[in-house]
Each structure stands twice: as structure tokens, then as C-alpha cells.
Amino acid sequence: RRIERAIASLRRAARALDANRPPAPPPAHEGFAPGVVIRELLASIAPRADGAPQRASRRRASPAR
């Protein structure tokens, strides 16, 4: 009997949470989606298949002072 009451209570709580859930946020812009950012970061770090060195970053390629 206690288990049945506990299960009923959990179901009521779950229904209340679903009823009060805010609307889903709009989807992230593809350019800033975490998966896209991580894939681009990993691609920039990974060694090239042909063994050539990575292209220098524009930030590091500043002219000497």
C-alpha cells in the first residue's frame, strides 16, 4: 500500500512538473552550436593527413615590432 501511494505521488509530481515546464528555447544558431564549435576545434588541432604543418593562426602571425 505504501509503495502504491509513493508511486501515485511521484506520478502527480511528474505531471505537475510537466504542466509548469517553460517552452523550449529556440534552437542554437548552427555556427555557434556546441557540436559545431567542438568539431571545428578538433579539426584545427588534429595533425593533417599529408603531414604538412598546420597553417599559422592569424593572431600569432603578427609582424615583428
Would you give an account of this structure?
With 65 residues, the chain is an all-alpha fold. The chain has helices at residues 2-20, 34-45. The protein has two helices and no strands.
Layout: helices, strands, pairs:
Elements: H1 2-20, H2 34-45
Key words describing this protein structure:
about 60 residues, mainly alpha, 2 helices
- Shape verdict: elongated
Count of separate DSSP helical elements: 2
Proportion of beta-strand residues? under 5%
Count of extended strands = 0
Helix and strand run: HH
Q: For the report, how would you describe the main beta sheet?
A: none
Overall structural class, as computed from helix and strand content, comes to mainly alpha
Report the helical percentage. Answer: 40-55%
Question: Short summary of the structure?
Answer:
By secondary structure, the chain is mainly alpha-helical. Helices cover 48% and strands 0% of the residues. It has helices at 2-20, 34-45.
